[in-house]
Write a structure and sequence with these properties.
8 helices; 47% helix; single chain; alpha+beta
């Protein structure tokens, strides 16, 4: 399934509202599965910042204030479907932050953290809904900071068949 997401790839380093970068974010049906209600969604839209930095990284949520950071090159070059899945994943972390949870429990490997498993479960569900097959989802799960074995463990836990 081909989806059209309105993502502003032309932003420069700086601070933005979610809607400045993901201009159609309020139309994402998945938000109602992440957040409690329309009031919480509105609060997130009004208060969560996106900061774009000219550094070599992809995207993460600050554990202190739930600010979402994007690497400039990643935001400029990444395909819309991947950025869409990334923002869904990061919004799950925003929700977890609002619940007072530690997003980066160093006592566990990245792929074993409950916060990551929960965020990836919703992201994989959404990836399937928009038409990605298991090969594409497996590729999405293959991030540079995990090993091949960790990737396989994560995919198994999420019921994603790897080739």
């Amino acid at each position: 399934m081909k989806n059209a997401y309105r993502i502003n790839h032309r932003v420069e380093p700086g601070q933005y509202r979610l809607e400045d970068v993901f201009t159609d974010i309020r139309t994402y049906d998945i938000l109602s599965e992440i957040f409690a209600d329309a009031k919480e969604i509105a609060w997130v839209m009004a208060n969560i910042k996106v900061i774009v930095i000219d550094e070599a990284f992809e995207v993460f949520v600050d554990n202190n204030d739930a600010t979402i950071y994007f690497g400039l090159k990643y935001l400029h070059c990444c395909h819309e479907e991947i950025l869409y899945l990334d923002i869904i994943h990061e919004l799950c972390h925003v929700k977890q932050h609002l619940q007072g949870r530690n997003l980066y429990d160093e006592r566990k490997a990245y792929v074993d953290r409950e916060t990551e498993i929960e965020a990836y479960q919703i992201t994989v569900q959404e990836a399937r809904r928009i038409g990605l097959n298991d090969d594409a989802i497996s590729n999405y799960l293959s991030v540079t900071w995990i090993t091949t074995e960790e990737h396989k463990r994560l995919a198994r836990r999420l019921n994603v068949i790897t080739s």
